[in-house]
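Our consortium's second objective concerns turning raw sequence data into structural hypotheses that experimental partners can test. To show how far this objective has progressed, the report includes one record in full. It was chosen at random from the queue rather than selected for favorable results. The single chain below, 72 residues long, was entered without modification.
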Amino acid sequence: MSEGPIKAWRDSWKPPIVSTNNDERVCLIVPPTMSPYCGRRKRVRITFDPADVKCSECSAAWVADHENGSTT
């Protein structure tokens, strides 16, 4: 695909990629799987309390799941 004006226009509509640095990240761990809500493999710090989360991916996944009622 060329790097022409059509690709530039399509790219202008893409949402920005937002990610939290590993130095600042605190992921939400959800029992019984005990895996981070964001799916990242490298765990830096973890919490069981959604109020203490400092991972943008975990926060977004938590909000999305609870807004549509897919989890309790």
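The partners drew two points from this record. Residues 33 and 63 are 19 Å apart (CA to CA). The radius of gyration is 16 Å. Both points have been shared with the crystallography group to help prioritize constructs.
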